[in-house]
Specification:
It is a single chain. The chain is an alpha/beta fold. The chain has eight helices and 17 strands. A hairpin with a 5-residue loop joins strand 13 and strand 14 (242-246). The protein is elongated and about 60 Å long. It binds flavin-adenine dinucleotide (FAD).
Length: 330
């Protein structure tokens, strides 16, 4: 492909730290690493750029029980295996944060600006994921992954028969609280305001569930403990008064289900984002911009998990190969 195509960078007369690629993959989580594997198999000249740590959100989780074929694994083992598989196939993975993405309307090529290099790319897959919105209480960072969770689907089963506190009042918090009520002995929904924002039908279901308690006008101020949490300080948002409840260490969990923030800032102005900031794609992971694909948690989809991110990455790389007129996996 490389010889005949026009280089956006050459046109601009730029030479230093500049590379021309068939495909730039932004993000080295499961979606990005899966895309890297499929890009290699389609013989694309591709690079994967990662900002912080390969594996993405996966490395935040110490136990993964729902990735087919790999029961009882942990985030580090799984993401390291994905990285090793991609690199064994010859994938180029570079630790370099991407700060800019633009498209030349005349050539249809992309300019991807990272810290150490700039890339003139024929196609781009954004696989930058999403971040769980933090609740902001004291102790949240310390206990993240050790008593404080951001994903009921992922971690709910570790609290089977235990008490859980759920922070959030929207639809997903209500749905996940109901899911947790099937596993936990008790679910306490902690809601900052004087009402839940969730749909009425969900609120009724919560109110009718014997295992669910709803504490309105309540916030968690801090969580304390040793290796695992053993106390929670609550604030009554009407009176401003606080009180501390203590439990056996490790006997409860806190689920922060206050929504997610998609990492789609690079796409702003380029492609359609939904009201929550997720990129809108078709089933080939294509955006409305030819050659620009989005895979994984950053796109609008019904289930954000490792298995769906990996699937998205495979589809996106295959779609990129088809866009470039290269043979794709059958
Ligand atoms: C605490 C927790 C536990 C979870 N447990 C499970 C579980 O048990 N099972 C399960 O299936 N799912 C689980 N999930 C969900 C799962 O981790 C995600 O669905 C999955 O990681 C999404 O993959 P992704 O590649 O789309 O995004 P991410 O994993 O978010 O990866 C995106 C990557 O892109 C990088 N990036 C972002 N912006 C840039 C940039 N500008 N330049 C370069 N790189 C960038 C990020 O640093 C990150 O590494 C869990 C999530 C959390 C938060």
């Amino acid at each position: 492909m490389g010889e005949k195509r026009e280089s956006l960078l050459q046109e601009k007369g730029e030479t230093m730290n500049e590379q021309t690629k068939d495909l730039v993959i932004i993000g080295g989580g499961p979606a990005g690493l899966s895309a890297a594997i499929y890009a290699q198999r389609s013989l694309l000249d591709a690079v994967t750029l990662e900002r912080e740590a390969l594996g993405g959100q996966v490395i935040l989780t110490s136990e993964i029980d729902n990735y087919p074929g790999l029961p009882h694994t942990d985030g580090f083992t799984l993401s390291d295996a994905m990285r090793a598989q991609a690199e064994d196939l010859g994938a180029s993975i570079v630790m370099d944060p991407v700060s800019g993405l633009s498209r030349d309307a005349a050539t249809g090529r992309f300019l991807v600006t990272a810290s150490a290099a700039r890339y003139d790319a024929a196609s781009v897959i954004l696989a930058a994921g999403a971040q769980p919105r933090r609740a902001g209480f004291e102790g949240e960072e310390r206990f993240a992954g050790h008593g404080v969770s951001y994903c009921a689907t992922c971690d709910g089963m570790f609290y089977r028969g235990k008490q859980v506190f759920v922070i959030g009042g929207g639809n997903s918090a209500a749905e996940e609280a109901l899911f947790l009520a099937r596993l936990a002995s008790r679910v306490t929904l902690v809601v900052r305001k004087d009402h839940l924002r969730a749909q009425t039908a969900l609120v009724r279901e919560l109110e009718a569930n014997e295992r669910v308690e709803i504490r309105l006008l309540t916030s968690i101020v801090s969580v304390g403990g040793g290796e695992l949490p053993s106390s929670i300080e609550f604030r009554d948002n009407a009176s401003g008064e606080t009180h501390v409840e203590t439990y056996d260490e490790g006997s409860f969990g806190i689920f922060v289900l206050a929504g997610r923030v998609p990492e789609t800032g690079l796409l702003r102005g380029l492609v359609e984002l939904d009201e929550s900031g997720y990129a809108v794609t078709d089933e080939r992971m294509a955006t409305e911009v030819p050659g620009l694909f989005v895979a994984g948690d950053a796109r609008r989809k019904p289930l954000r998990q490792i298995v769906t991110a990996a699937s998205d990455g495979a589809v996106a790389a295959t779609s990129a190969a088809a866009y470039l007129g290269l043979p794709v996996e059958g």
